[in-house]
Amino acid sequence: MDALEWIVPCPKKASSGASHVDLSVCAIQGDATADRAVAALRDHFGPQDTTSAASVEIRIRVDAGAGLPAEGYTLSASPTGVLIIGADAAGALHGARTLLALAGAPCSEHSACVPESEVSDWPDLPLRGTIEGFYGPPWTHADRVDHLRFSARHKLNAYVYAPKDDPFHRERWREPYPEEELARLGELVAEADRQHVRFVFALSPGLSMVYADPAERAALRAKAGQVWDVGVREYALLFDDIPPELSHARDRETFGTADGASASAHAALCRDFAAEFLLARGASRPLTMVPTDYAGTGRTAYRDRLAAELPADVLVWWTGSDVVVGEITTEDVTAAAGSYGHRLSLWDNFPVNDFDFDRVFLGPLTGRTTDPNGTLPGGAALEGITANPMVQAAASRIALTTVADYAWNLAAYDPARSHARAVRLVPGATELLPLVEACSAWPPGADQSPALTALCAAALDDGSRSGRRAESPAEARAELRAELVRLAELPTDVPGRLATELARWVAAARDMGAAGLAALDLLATAPETPGARPGPTAVEEALARAEAHKANVLRRVIPPFVRQVLDRTAT
After folding, report:
1. Could you give the CA distance from residue 327 to residue 442 in angstroms, rounded to a whole number?
2. Tens of pLDDT along 287-300?
3. Which residues of the chain carry a pLDDT beneath 70?
4. pTM of the complete model beyond 0.85
5. Which residues contact 169 (CB under 8 A, 6 or more apart)?
6. How distant is the alpha carbon of residue 207 from its chain centre?
7. β-bridge mates for residue 198, sequence order
8. Could you tell me if 120 and 94 are in contact, meaning their C-beta atoms sit under 8 angstroms apart?
9. At residue 228, what are phi and psi to the nearest 5 degrees?
10. Catalytic residue among 146, 241, 259, 414
């Protein structure tokens, strides 16, 4: 396999030669502005040898005058050494990560090497990240630390802390974090800084806040100040999933009761927070906010007020034409940005599963425009994308790897190719590939497996249907059997966090595959093994075992097929 295929996200420009640069003995040098890139390489390659004649020099430097966009880098690997130039410190680290990706490609000749290569690379979207914004059990501290490191490896540059079920984020927003939890937040901020990942702290006060009360605004600033003291420097205010109308008399007196009045309250709070907290403390990044009216593309009374009253530099999160979507077009982005009158970031509710905890979404990002930037006066409409992951942190990485690929290089994004790379890179995913494929459909209402659905239909086809498949029912049954065997024989001993998180889906998939196989055996006119053909009762029992699982694997595909087989064989 071409070593360039190991670079995720896909670089803008890259070429490689047939020969390799042996890095088993190397010396890594860099200027102070590239210290984290240097540290990342030294951590990987181990002790340095600057005296050996066989030592290859790896040099890293930052050059703001190199003509590269922000976070861009160049990498040149040749027999004379490796040179990485970053447009900034983040670019230098991205270049180091690309070198590590190349070094990770299998090579039978060297213990550590990269191909002779030239890479020139930079991101398309300035903001590329994730938002822990789902309902349900929040990630653990270890999950978050691992996720920040995963983000850095895949050149994602932002993580938003916004777990709905953290009471101090939402219901108890006024209360300071207990010292132990505050210390953990400080550890996350420090880790994010080491990885060049922006840590964005979000507060969601809208369930109970009296916006017109100065004491409430002061309480919000005090809460933000507590996390400022442990290193937070970027903030977001969230007004999602709250009543659309103002519920407190004081707010109604101040902001009115007309349609969209709550937008005036939200804009006022954002103005106060930006001026009295961010500006007062010298924060370098502007505020981000989620409006209550966060889905759809058209103008509303709420959005008209927000456009007029929200500070111009505030970034607005938006989820697309609906809350969870299969498609986002260029026209959607342009229309939505126009309706808000502000730059947008896509809060992409993918691969989130908080609306159905019995499903996991392990497929690639699909249906997103690769030309998102319609224009507003002053610049691009879409600043970036933050994907909302699943409760299962490790399992989310398959989909999030493809999000990173998309956001970095829009024009080159190929969902199938990106998914194949993600499966290769996430430990355990290759071993569980049949499950990954069975849980790859998106959006949630889509056919869970168009390929298996077609095979099931073809296996039942008696030749009377129009538009039947080219192969015979026997051929379709053989192909379907092969796929069901893959599910029924999924391994249960795969090590690692991914397999642990997906254990109940593995069990469901095995039983679902077994139920489908039992139905195929019943359908067969000539059993392969005498006495092996099950009777209807055995098939019904297999189906009952499959459907007893809460974990949903192909529930809308295999059980209907099994029932059709039972109906057919009963006549």
Report:
1. 10
2. 999 999 999 999 99
3. 1, 48-54, 374-380, 462-471, 525-533, 571
4. yes
5. 161, 162, 163, 202, 203, 204
6. 27
7. 158
8. no
9. -60, -40
10. 241
